[in-house]
Design a protein that fits this description.
By secondary structure, the protein is α/β, with parallel strands linked by helices. The protein is 58% helix and 11% strand. It has 3 domains: 194 residues, P-loop containing nucleotide triphosphate hydrolases (Rossmann fold, 3-Layer(aba) Sandwich), CATH 3.40.50; 70 residues; 63 residues, Arc Repressor Mutant, subunit A (Orthogonal Bundle). Helix 6 packs across helix 7, helix 9 crosses helix 10 and helix 11 runs antiparallel to helix 12. The two termini are 35 Å apart. It binds adenosine-5'-triphosphate and magnesium ion. Adenosine-5'-triphosphate (ATP) binds next to helix 2 and helix 11.
Length: 337
């Protein structure tokens, strides 16, 4: 199931083919990964070499990350087997194929301990493959914020390597809005002006409704109400649609969803408890109040806490002084009690 994101999909596909780079920023569960995978899948059908690299599991080990990138890149050439079996596989078949293809790769590096050189070599490989095969290459790095958190120096290395690339375009996605903006939008950021920033919002109302009307037989008005209640939250809407597809009615779908997500919402609340004043501020917002007026807390502290809540992904800053919950179920929960 893939709903909406029509505009983003076109923009990404067309741009990537023209060798533009993109940065996708959105809170958790807003559909970054889903969108990236869809774009890559479609580009692949058009003959582009597409690589999807999830950085999350590798954020604290540059050597593991490097080997993983090499693995994925070698897959493009149909070289199977994983670099874990480095000495065995790559020395025999990998080396032979690469040699035949005329693509350079310093295998010895991956047996050594110089993690920076390893990462450099790994990041060069997709470009070398594209250049040799005269193919356009797209590499998407998902969860890029993770690298910045654990190894900011690696971020610089990424930039210094890939900025010279001519066949490869890049997508960077991340959910830590503050980190992503610092890296990609701040004029002192390592990747300032590196690419077009796409901030994913909730699903588009019209496109989602159209999908529902075409695929399900539920009363439109009821679905509209539900969509508004969940503010188009991609994950929740997708879950609801799944339930509707299995024959449930709108009310029981919503009820089931809230029950199933209750533990998650409580976890969010538990985490917020560790930030001083956060819950009071979130509650005020959930009840449509202005925390600066409604609470007896110094303005400066409110402002600082709001920033922290944006950093933690609870809120999204819409404009000066205007904040929105990223999770509609949390907002409903806090608004009620
Ligand atoms: N465009 C879409 N069409 C249909 N379902 C979607 C769409 N976007 C998101 N979803 C649903 O929401 C879920 C979460 O989306 P996804 O994993 O892509 O979000 P994410 O932004 O990558 O989240 P995270 O930051 O947690 O990795 C998906 O498993 C899918 O069910
Ligand atoms: Mg994701």
């Amino acid at each position: 199931m893939f709903i909406d994101r029509v505009e983003e999909l076109t923009k990404l596909k067309e741009g990537l083919k023209r060798r533009e780079n993109f940065i996708i920023i959105a809170p958790r569960r807003y559909g970054k990964t889903t969108l990236i995978r869809k774009v890559l899948e479609e580009l692949q059908k058009e003959g582009v070499y597409a690589l999807y690299i999830d950085l999350m599991p590798y954020a604290d080990s540059m050597s593991a990350l490097s080997k993983y990138i090499v693995d994925e890149a070698l897959d493009l050439l149909g070289i199977e087997g994983k670099i874990k079996k480095l000495s065995h596989l790559l020395q025999i078949r990998g080396k032979a194929v690469l040699k035949e293809e005329g693509i350079e790769l310093n295998f010895e590096l991956f047996k050594g301990t110089d993690e920076r050189e390893m990462l450099r070599e790994a990041l060069e490989l997709p470009e070398r493959i594209g250049s040799r095969k005269r193919k356009r290459v797209v590499v998407a790095f998902d969860e890029f914020g993770e690298i910045y958190k654990t190894n900011p120096k690696a971020v610089k290395l990424f930039r210094s390597v890939i900025q010279h690339h001519e066949c490869t375009s890049y997508v960077f996605a991340g959910s830590q809005e503050t980190i992503m903006k610092k890296v990609f939008m701040d004029k002192d950021g390592v990747f300032f002006r590196f690419g077009t920033v796409i901030e994913l919002k909730g699903l588009d109302f019209k496109d989602t409704l159209e999908y529902v009307l075409n695929n399900l037989s539920v009363p439109a008005e009821e679905f509209v109400e539900l969509f508004n209640l969940l503010k188009g939250h991609p994950y929740y809407i997708a879950r609801i649609i799944d339930k509707l597809k299995s024959g449930k009615d709108v009310m029981s779908a919503l009820q089931e969803l809230t029950e199933e997500e209750n533990a998650y919402v409580e976890l969010l609340i538990e985490r917020a408890r560790s930030i001083k004043h956060a819950l009071e501020i979130l509650r005020a917002l959930a009840r449509g109040k202005n925390p600066y007026e409604a609470l007896d807390i110094k303005d400066q502290i409110i402002s600082r806490t709001l920033n922290t809540l944006v950093n933690y992904g609870y809120l999204r800053k819409i404009s000066r002084g205007v904040y929105e919950f990223t999770d509609p179920l949390l907002e409903i929960y806090l608004g009620e009690r």
